[in-house]
What does this fold into?
Amino acid sequence: MKSDLDKFMKQHDIDVLFITGAAQHNPAMIYFVGTAHVSDAFLIKKRGKAPVLFHYPMEREEAAKSGLPLTSLSKYPISELLKDAGGNYLDAMVLRLKRMLEDLDIRSGRVAIYGKDEIGPVYAMINGLEKLMPGIQMIGFVRDEILSNAMMTKEADEISHIREMGRITTAVVGKTADYITGHKTSRETVVHTDGSPVTIGEVKNLINLWLAEFGVENPEGTIFAIGRDAGIPHSVGTPSDPLKLGQTIVYDIYPCQAGGGYFYDFTRTWSLGYATDEVQALYDQVKQVYDTLVSELEVNAPFSRYQDRTCELFEAMGHPTIRTNQVTEVGYVHSVGHGIGLKVHEKPWSSTTNSSPTDILAPGAAFTLEPGLYYPDRGMGVRIEDSYVVTPDGRFEILADYPKDLILPLK
Amino acid sequence: MKSDLDKFMKQHDIDVLFITGAAQHNPAMIYFVGTAHVSDAFLIKKRGKAPVLFHYPMEREEAAKSGLPLTSLSKYPISELLKDAGGNYLDAMVLRLKRMLEDLDIRSGRVAIYGKDEIGPVYAMINGLEKLMPGIQMIGFVRDEILSNAMMTKEADEISHIREMGRITTAVVGKTADYITGHKTSRETVVHTDGSPVTIGEVKNLINLWLAEFGVENPEGTIFAIGRDAGIPHSVGTPSDPLKLGQTIVYDIYPCQAGGGYFYDFTRTWSLGYATDEVQALYDQVKQVYDTLVSELEVNAPFSRYQDRTCELFEAMGHPTIRTNQVTEVGYVHSVGHGIGLKVHEKPWSSTTNSSPTDILAPGAAFTLEPGLYYPDRGMGVRIEDSYVVTPDGRFEILADYPKDLILPLK
It folds into this structure.
């Protein structure tokens, strides 16, 4: 939680957090500012102090909505900076950063950098700053344990945002099922009244429209993939593919609040009309693993325990897994879950190679559980994914329930 | 154009372009890859060679849609990297970058970095790489003149994408006008049949819905602001505000193709029912400046010439401008235009303080013209914005036409 930030900063010997970029699709900035029409801003938080938002003068009213202490960048006029920097634009930008820090009485220390922004200019500026202020050390983390750890355990209002996104997500999935099952079939294909096939692309357009009707976004797209595509976990589907009966459809949907707020993440696998024995058997195995995992969830357990457990269970069923072959593209090929919040993938991590001792199912954590099996050459893939939260008293609650039927019966 | 890249790399003594991040809302990556479900990828282009896309194995089919030479990151197994890096994850990631570069026969040189990505981890990795490969120098530009200059002059297919976005944008603006003018009024307010006021928020929700129906996105939102908000150029509007008659509405809409493709940028100012003399006079002045600018456009002219000209014209009318007062918040307070493309704001720049000799209206450039006047304390603001392209033979074409009526007559 935000209130843990100073503690985490101290643990990692960090004096200042420095966050760049717009308050749009930029989790670190949005965590403090909320989604607002604030672009190219800087947020600087000194340990033990409230964060200060440095914004462009034109965006002052939007910036004020954050409720944070503000400083307008008009305090540092470009013409003056350029004069003081001998006309060099980069040097002027670096000088501005220096003056911003000094205005917060920061003259030395370890500064952790965050934000989703254009790498080139930020890299040039922070390199320049280190040269101009030799007491300052700028630090980036490939595995952040400060901001990410604070963000990992959610406060009640954050969970209610995610739960609301779950309600919207499953409502859209329900509309999708209703739309498909409202059609006739012809020659093993879902068809319109004029006999033309219903395609993956049409369904995806409708999904986008329904999401927009709910006022939410899907900045990273939606997976709606049939047959061989369903067997490739990150294939998003081929727009021209017709909806054929008896083939697996993997429907993975991960929308967020407008402007890049909280995400949800949800997957169902469907087989239209009927399921072949082979598909049904694969589905039953994934469902069995899903149910086993849910029954074994324990508060404060390392998330990676469930990744190991998933590999163990699938291996016992005879499937290759990424534990037995790190680069396998058949069988169980990904990790069993991840945190969700302002990023669709965040801490806690379940990967056994990519997690730390802090990747635990702590109270406040919101995370996915998503076992799956993939056999692209057999034209099939199955994944079942729900999102859960650990309550303050250590119980596990599903954030949005939805039926897990494999077969969608058609007219 | 892309074909100029090697020339620009040579001019600036750059041996390699290094681009990080997803092919979603990341202009530098999308420029080469197109919008695709490719996350956390790396694109490396050696001068004189085709760019190579390094992608995660799960995303191989999406990556293949780029048509680029591919290398799967499964070529560099994490377990092996970790072993060779003594178990340190950051060092393992740095080692992977080193091996990727070496596989392209890059062992030294000046590497320019691009991409919209999480600053922290990228900063950590490129700093590490410089230490591991002392012959490599990583370089970020606050004013890039390589990739940005190539992107500035568009090829025919890029212009047709922008033109199509212009068609969609103006269609949505037309729907907005039709929706508003289809209502009754009561007590100087646009109302529903039940007498309740139509609000800014309702109209903005409909704009989002219409954009979604066209299959496009507005990742940076839409400005639909009335009265005092219209006088603050980057206020996006207050959702609860009712649509009052006789007040300026600034409607600035800048959507992009799904996933972060090409943008359009367009503004109209409306006054519902009637215009006060004061509003009409302000509007006429902006329109007169707009018309003057259009009549004076010259191929290969520095874009900043038109910023100076706009200031000159508005100053002659008695308005403060940012030329007379760099931090003014009334009068003419911004720059007169910018390039559009995979970014909503890109080269050429028109700012007199923030442009370079390459910011010219060259053939292939797509750009906005958007003079405006702002008086928040008088509850009004006016901006007129269209987007233009310079044709290969040096003519100026508007990319999407739309009426410039100030008054929207109501029932």
Notes: Residues 2-149 of chain B form a domain with the Creatine Amidinohydrolase; Chain A, domain 1 fold (CATH 3.40.350.10). The longest helix of chain B spans residues 156-181. The mean pLDDT of chain B is 95.
